[in-house]
Amino acid sequence: MFTDLKIPASRRPLTRGEAQASAVLGGLFALLMLAAILDDFTPQRLSIVFLIVFWVPMLVLHEFGHALMARALGWRVPEIVIGFGRELWIWQLGSTRIRIKLAPVEGYVLPVPVDARGLRLKSALIYAAGPGAELLLLALMLLVFGRDGVFNDSAEIGMIALQSLAVVILIGAGFNLIPFSTGSGVSDGLGIISSPFMSETSIQLRLAAFELHEIQNAVDRGNTATALVGMRRLLERFPDNPSLQLVYASTLSADGQDD
Fold first, then answer.
1. 123-136: per-residue pLDDT in tens?
2. How far, rounded to the nearest angstrom, does the alpha carbon of residue 241 sit from its chain's CA centroid?
3. Under 8 Å between Cβ of 196 and 122
4. CA-based torsion, 174, 176, 181, 186: positive or negative
């Protein structure tokens, strides 16, 4: 998912109890999956394993599809995040910070335009590039193996793996193309549809996306003084933006200046 104006806030590390509960639930899930595979075993039951194994690579492909399209259109990509929860690894790839988190079931890309030229069209193209990258892979699979090879039942392990990959692509791309809003942004489908109708206020927020992300991180770390400096700089650029004024008020409140 290419996140819109709301950036997921950093999540606190798991407590010891939460980590233990997660481990227990993960173990139970693994045992149930193993029991389902071994009960009256057939090679087709291995598709359960393949569906799980292929999810993470397709998530990575999806997010890098967004990122590569953004770079091709001249936007900056300061951050790519894979997963949620506790942060496991972080490294720098050129000008992009890549963060890997504990539960790799979702992700987001933070693309930032350098100016407002063609922003609405470019935004729609970047939204489309995530599911588009997955569907392009599916098209290549169909070209190489044919429709029957990809979708017909087979008892061969390799073909079962191929068919499982096709299912993961269809589920992932299909779900992301459904238009809906989330707590941290919008789906790719809704982003494609809404980008051509972005207001000037939304365009300003998109231009300020990375600064807002860093301001939110500063607030999460309790460094409200740094956050306020960042907010005042943004308000100098966009003094009449009501959304930024609300964020500024929220940052003041976080700093204890409720009045």
1. 999 999 999 999 99
2. 26
3. no
4. negative
